[in-house]
Amino acid sequence: MTAVPTTLTAVAGAVLTASEWNTNNRDVENWLLAPAICQVRQTSAQSLSNNTNTALLFDTEDVDSTGMHSTSSNTSRLTAVYPGWYQFSGGYSAASNATGVRVTSFQVNSTVVNGSGSDQTSVAAGTTVRMPTRTILVFLNVGDFCELAALQTSGGALNTAVTTSEQPHCTAIWTSN
């Protein structure tokens, strides 16, 4: 199913069948009780080039109720199966480096979403920088995709940090038509 289920509009004199009731009431309620959700993580370090906005790759799914993510192709993408508003959140951790800034943002169909960015200056060497991004709502049509992107300006390539508490992650929840 790639359409959000809808409720039945009653018509005077119409006889409601069990099939109509199940399709237009029960199924809608069940769908709303279990909306499309996806949460992915990165467990293998990814090299981020200096001063280049890079979509993060995710190799582990904690939950993917509707097939929004693939661990074998386009692993950076969470792709809409249903049209509507999705809430996205996430973040990444960069390996220790005392130079430059770290930035994270969301992009839809490879275009940065206005207002989704978050940045932080580097910290002392030996300290991992944890970069949460803003939680945002974006409207996606079926087939549109959202990615969590990272940028760093250390002067050279810098890896993402993937220890248990620092794994880059992204979460999507369908919220509304």
Domain count: the total is: 1
Major sheet attributes: 6 strands, antiparallel
Helix content: under 10%
Order of helices and strands: HEEEEEEEEEEEEEE
Uncertain segments are none
Question: What is the level 1 CATH name?
Answer: Mainly Beta
Named CATH architecture: Sandwich
What do you see in this structure?
The chain has 177 residues and is mostly beta strands. It has a single domain (36-176), classed as Jelly Rolls (Sandwich). It has 1 helix and 14 strands; from the N terminus they run αββββββββββββββ. It has one helix at 18-33; strands at 37-41, 47-48, 54-55, 60-64, 78-79, 84-94, 101-108, 111-112, 118-121, 129-132, 136-140, 145-152, 158-159, 169-176. The strands form 3 sheets. Strands 1, 4, 6, 10, 11 and 14 form a 6-stranded antiparallel β-sheet that branches. Strand 7 (101-108) and strand 8 form a beta hairpin. The model has no long low-confidence stretch (mean pLDDT 89).
SSE blueprint:
Layout: H1 18-33, E1 37-41, E2 47-48, E3 54-55, E4 60-64, E5 78-79, E6 84-94, E7 101-108, E8 111-112, E9 118-121, E10 129-132, E11 136-140, E12 145-152, E13 158-159, E14 169-176
Antiparallel strand pairs: 1-4, 1-14, 2-13, 3-12, 5-12, 6-10, 6-11, 6-14, 7-8, 7-9, 7-12
